[in-house]
Design goal:
The complex is a heterodimer of chains A (235) and B (177). Chain A is of the alpha+beta class and 235 residues long. Chain A folds into two domains: 3-77, Ubiquitin-like (UB roll); 98-232, Alpha-Beta Plaits (2-Layer Sandwich), CATH 3.30.70. In chain A, 24% of the residues lie in helices and 16% in strands. Chain A has helices at 21-27, 79-95, 110-117, 153-161, 197-201, 222-232; strands at 3-8, 11-16, 51-54, 61-62, 73-75, 134-135, 141-144, 167-170, 177-180, 207-209. Chain A has a five-stranded mixed beta sheet with strand order 2-1-5-3-4, covered by helices on one side. A three-stranded antiparallel beta sheet of chain A has the order 6-7-10, with no helix packed on it. In chain A, strand 1 (3-8) and strand 2 (11-16) form a beta hairpin. Chain B has six helices and seven strands, in the order E-H-H-E-E-E-H-E-H-H-E-E-H. In chain B, the strands form two sheets. In chain B, strands 2-1-3-5-7 form a five-stranded parallel beta sheet, sandwiched between helices. A two-stranded antiparallel sheet of chain B has the order 4-6. Chain B starts with a strand and ends in an 11-residue tail after the last helix. In chain B, 37% of the residues are buried. The chains are: A alpha+beta (235), B alpha/beta (177). At the A-B interface, helix 3 of A face helix 4 of B. Chain B: This is Oxidoreductase. Chain B: One of its GO terms (molecular function) is oxidoreductase activity. Chain B: Residues 14-163 form the NADH:ubiquinone oxidoreductase-like 20kDa subunit domain.
Chain lengths: 235, 177
């Protein structure tokens, strides 16, 4: 595999030619915030948190979906990017009802942690306070739409790793909602194998194991990458 | 010695943030050497005084009394700190927002789910009228500092107060829940 030489935040690094800017940055020890990215799953570039500046391009590019090129000059942490990231996290908080104090994932939540990382002291936008449902028709798991950020990690884990595609998204914009099968209650979704990969992949308290209460939901999302690696390398 | 005039305010919240403040135990005695508590739920003072240096505000804006009081707090205080998640985000106090306007909430709570079936509370001039939507305080007045947490821990409150007393900027980002 050919090597590419590029700079990230002024530091010269080398990467394999098929690597993304995100992968190259992480290998070089440079952290870029992400939310919809999960190791082991395909990239959708949906959350825009990993946007970076690339010299010669007026548009910001998602690091997870941009392949490295020779001589590329990348900036990951400029004041402009920081302002955008903070605004994105604030908008996520404003769009649904993320009440950390009464959430199963509190203390183990990627969104809650992102708020700290991007320096979100408060939300400057008006809260939409949508009326969202909670579906606990499944015997083992529940889905709380109040906490969903539409990252589609559950959709991709179910489709790409379990090979089922029980999950998808219906509707558009602020009306978009996760659905199971053809928008039936999760407990009636006959395609679901109850494998729990969606639960592992979820970054917030949206998908939870039934019976867990405030701050009790601990998961290890890296197990998705472990499963994928085990298959690819025939462990 | 000219002590800092400190006020603490309790709006739409559970008083947990005040409990957290009281959790500072004997440090409160050290604090008392530097501040004069001029208004608080734990002080006998009915109206919000003039010339306050620092106001710690717990709770969201949930009714007409809060709406009125927070204006006085802003006008009469040099610095206003949103103390805890209800003041910063609306938090648990704002859980009723998706359920609709105040009349609909009262109907659901007192009539539909009331056991025994109750009546809608109506005591003009005594119990304040609920607002249709609960909002964090920065939606009504400019806020100088945000100290999140449900509640913010005693040591976090102490760190902020110590930084302010020393005239240095406190560390505040995040910490929701």
């Amino acid at each position: 595999m050919a090597a590419r030489t590029l700079t990230i935040n002024g530091t010269l690094i080398s990467a394999r030619s098929n690597e993304t800017v995100l992968e190259a940055a992480r290998e070089a020890g440079i952290s870029i915030p992400t939310l919809c990215h999960l190791d082991g799953l395909s990239e959708v570039g949906a959350c825009r948190l990993c946007l970076v500046e690339i010299a010669g391009s007026a548009k910001l590019q998602p690091a997870c979906h941009t392949t490295v090129t020779e001589g590329m000059e990348v900036q990951t942490d400029t004041p402009r990017l920081k302002a955008h990231r903070r605004a994105i996290v604030e908008l996520l908080f404003a769009e649904r009802n993320h009440i950390c104090a009464v959430c199963v994932a509190s203390g183990h939540c990627e969104l809650q942690q992102l708020a700290v990382e991007v320096g979100m002291s408060h939300v400057r936008y008006e809260y939409l306070s949508p009326d969202c449902s909670v579906d606990i028709s499944h015997a083992r798991f529940g889905i709380d739409h109040n906490r969903c950020v539409l990252c589609t990690r559950c959709v991709r884990a179910c489709d790409e790793v379990e090979g089922v595609h029980t999950w998808d998204i219906a509707g558009r914009g602020t009306n978009a909602r996760l659905i199971t099968d053809l928008n039936v209650p999760w407990g009636e979704a006959t395609s679901c194998t109850s494998c729990g990969k969606c639960l592992l992949a979820c970054p917030t308290g949206a998908i939870f194991s039934r019976g867990s209460t405030v701050a009790e939901l601990e998961r290890d999302a890296s197990r998705i990458a472990t499963i994928v690696a085990a298959r690819n390398e025939r462990w | 010695m000219n002590r800092l005039k400190l006020a603490t305010v309790w709006l739409g919240g559970c008083s947990g943030c005040h409990m957290s403040l009281l959790d500072l135990d004997e440090w409160l005695i050290d604090l008392a050497a530097h501040v004069e508590l001029v208004y608080s739920p734990i002080a006998d003072q009915k109206t919000f005084p003039e010339g306050v240096d620092l106001a710690l505000v717990e709770g969201a804006i949930a009714n007409e009394e809060h709406l009125e009081l927070i204006q006085d707090v802003r006008e009469r205080s040099r610095m206003v700190i949103a103390l805890g998640d209800c003041a910063v985000t609306g938090n648990v106090t704002a859980l009723r927002n998706p359920l609709g306007e105040a009349r609909s909430i009262l109907q659901q709570v007192y009539i539909e789910h009331g056991d025994p079936r109750g009546i809608l509370p109506s005591t003009p001039g005594i119990v304040p009228i609920l607002l249709d939507q609960v909002v964090p305080i920065h939606m009504i007045i400019p806020v100088d500092l945000f100290l999140a947490g449900c509640p913010p821990s005693g040591p976090r409150i102490r760190a902020v107060l110590e930084a302010l007393l020393a005239g240095t900027p406190p560390e505040l980002a995040g910490g929701f829940g």
